[in-house]
Amino acid sequence: MKKAHLWHRAVLKSSSLAVAVILVYLLLFIQLMKMEQQYDHANVFDGIYWIVTTITTEGYGDIVFSSAAGKLFSVAVMISGIPLVFGILFTLVIFPWLERSIRSSLPTKAAKKLSEHIIICGYNPLVETLIEELNENEIPYVLIEEEQELVVGLLKKDIHTIYGIPYDEETLRNANIDSARFVIANRSDEMNANIVLTARNISDVKIIAMVEDRSNKKYLKYAGATSVVSPKELFGRFIGRKAADPFVSRLTGATEFFEGVSIIEFPIYPKSPLLGKTIRNAAIREKTGANIVGMWKVGSLSFNVRPEDTIRDNSVLLAIGTTEQLSKLRRLTQRME
Known about the structure:
This protein is α/β, with parallel strands linked by helices. Helix content is 49%, strand content 15%. It is built from 12 helices and 11 strands. 30% of the residues are buried.
């Protein structure tokens, strides 16, 4: 919607500029023709004809200026014609055509036979890791994205993606919401509320909503979310767990996305072998099978975890995996192997 609005504004701006330039050229043409006493051509029709043939560099030569001022004007019109014509051509014709071509080639519907799947509304690195887990556990899914370029990139990665607005009723129906296991709303709090409202209006499917501001949690619940996940709220619990017995055997604080696969945050304890290592050198996935999808750094949660990021004593790792994989990681974050 935003792109369409911007496109319409660009079209209006380009069209207005073109009309204004042509009117100025027309007035100058008539005045210069009168100055050269070519009164037969000093009219609107000949002026438009001359401007069009000059701007398009056709220049039939049947109407020409003889004065220096007229010739300079002709050169100015020819030079300005290139950006004027091609600017309008690209804005009004080529770009819209390319956009329609790309849009028409993108998938907008999930396979009719797709069922017992997970609908993910919105992409980020956390989602890509979740999809890896879904693939490993052979759980079907479909990702909904409205950014065309992003959809193209995700399809190249063999991520099952459809193009559409995630809070649009038709899009959710195209994702087979009636036969889905549940929906994950993974956009901004405001957009997630719209996704939840739309999904709940057309289906009784379970809905998990991610929330950025914990104060919005109740509103997402009111909208119809089955559960709301707030990383910031979970973080407070982990601060308290820092002082708890690090050898507690239970895996607490996990949020289950689907049967057997959960997301949980792990604080780093003083005796952890991960302390001081980079994400790359820690080789967490190789050792545990769990995926690190986020990390608290200096009081803020980042989903852009880089291989060179160092695990420190105030770090908290956000991981996703099976109960067994997360249990291995818990042991790794708490004490020496």
